[in-house]
Amino acid sequence: MDVSESHPLFPTYTKYPITLLKGEGSRVWDDQGKEYLDCMSGIAVCNLGHVPMKVKQRIQEQLEQLWHVSNLFHIPNQQKLAQMLADHSCMDHVFFCNSGAEANEAAIKCARRYQQRVLGNNRYEIITFEKSFHGRTMATLTATGQDKVKDGFFPLPAGFTYAPYNEIEGVKDKITDRTAAVLVELVQGEGGVYPANPGFVTELSALCQEHGLLLIIDEVQTGMGRTGKLFAYEHYGIEPDIITLAKGLASGFPIGAMMGKKKLRNAFSAGTHASTFGGAPLAAAAGLATLETILEERLYSRAEEMGEYALRRLSDQLCHYAVVRAIRGIGLLLGIECRVPVAPIIQELLQPGLLVLAAGANVIRFIPNLYITEEEIDQAVGILTAVLERY
After folding, report:
1. Residue 158: which CATH number?
2. How far apart are CA 388 and CA 382, in angstroms?
3. Within its chain, how far is the Cα of 70 from the centroid?
4. CA 220 to CA 45: how far, in whole Å?
5. Residues 6 or more apart whose Cβ sits within 8 Å of residue 104
6. Are 231 and 89 in contact (CB under 8 A)?
7. Under a CB-based contact definition with an 8 Å cutoff, are residues 23 and 38 in contact?
8. Which helix H or strand E contains 332, and what residues bound it?
9. Rounded mean pLDDT for each run of 10 residues along the chain, 391 residues in total
């Protein structure tokens, strides 16, 4: 479908020249009947693949009962989902919203209010990192360490400062008596698929404890099994104060979550924050079925296994190509860094039926669903090889 200048949609997305109508597992089909192998998963959203049966059934059941009710009432599935998230993390409390940006917005507010109203100081600044991405609201785009997302939106909210990623001395240089928290991705997805170094994360956690700062981990893209653990922070042997979730939490149904330690409970007391649709019955049902599936089938372990296989196959086939600079990542969040802009390459990959996306100008992001098979990985690597050998 061609969206012309006269179409009422704002042109905020650079769209692929295809219209997808159907999905099942790792496959999607367009309006011409063409089949594609989907290795972008709705940008790390469809962790269970397209239209997973258990989630579909749970949503259908909920559709017959109740679609929406205000958060002024108890919502059973919301409470069950919160309990399950707490039981399988180091967190104690959960706030539900609708997206990753909203989850990070909630984290920023919670951190500031904890410092100012619970501890009684005037700390409000958040340290984030260069090349990070945290969302598109005014606060979260300001938290993002990329200038391109801020163009034309000035003046930006005060209270954010940026340190070099994976450099602890740079963080130390940014700490002042106004610093409230540090917000970090353990894999910078949009910024180029850069995992955090274990030593840096260990030092960062200790530094936050030393200075009384909250450590906020943005798990919007890394959470829900994608990296080989249910949450990426589990790879690093630390316990953050807050984690944020969204993309993979409900198999494509809009939901986000901010999870925090018990000490933060009084920072988010009645009336301090809200979300009309956050954790409503349909979203909670989808989230609960998704999380149950991930845990029951240990899909995080499968992500680790298939991620290692994919990284090995990509390295074996592509590392000798001059166009490829590096291949990196963790679990099923992988990046192929090229020496040329990847947008034309991604467009070429559509013809043989492979869907991937960029992570910055020069990185192809490979983020298939957690059920992907070795055969499907081999198919994807074969298509990538055939296209990249021409560069």
Report:
1. 3.40.640.10
2. 10
3. 27
4. 9
5. 134, 135, 139, 140, 143, 183, 218, 220, 244, 258
6. yes
7. yes
8. none
9. 74 95 98 98 98 98 97 97 98 98 98 98 97 98 97 97 98 98 98 98 98 98 98 98 98 98 97 96 98 98 98 95 97 98 98 97 98 98 97 92
Bridge partner list, 130: 145
Residue that the structure tokens 């409390």 belong to: 93
Burial of residue 3 (CB within 10 Å: 0-12, 13-18, 19+) is: exposed
The one-letter amino acid at 361:
A
- For residue 2, the model assigns a pLDDT of 54
CATH code, domain with 318: 3.90.1150.10
For CA atoms 331, 336, 342, 347, give the dihedral sign. Answer: negative
φ and ψ at 33, to 5 degrees? 85, 5
Instruction: Supply the pLDDT for residue 5.
Output: 73
Q: Which tokens belong to 213?
A: 């700062």
Q: Which residues contact 298 (CB under 8 A, 6 or more apart)?
A: none
Q: Residue 6: what pLDDT? A: 78
Predicted TM-score (pTM) of this structure? 0.97
Q: Which amino acid is at 219?
A: E
Q: Which of 348, 386, 283, 291 is nearest to 16 (CA)?
A: 348
Query: What's the domain range around 370?
Result: 20-51+298-388
* Residue 189 lies inside a defined structural domain of this protein: yes
**In 10 A of CB 202, how many CB atoms?**
14
How many residues are listed for the chain in this entry? 391
What is the structure's pLDDT at 168? Answer: 98
Is there a contact between 40 and 356 (Cβ–Cβ < 8 Å)? yes
Q: Is the peptide bond before 76 cis (omega within 30 degrees of 0)?
A: no
Q: And the tokens for 336?
A: 């192929």
Determine, yes or no, domain membership for 202: yes
> Counting Cβ atoms within 10 Å, is residue 87 exposed (0-12), middle (13-18) or buried (19+)?
exposed
- pLDDT score of 4: 64
Q: Is residue 45 part of a domain?
A: yes
H or E element at residue 312: helix 299-318
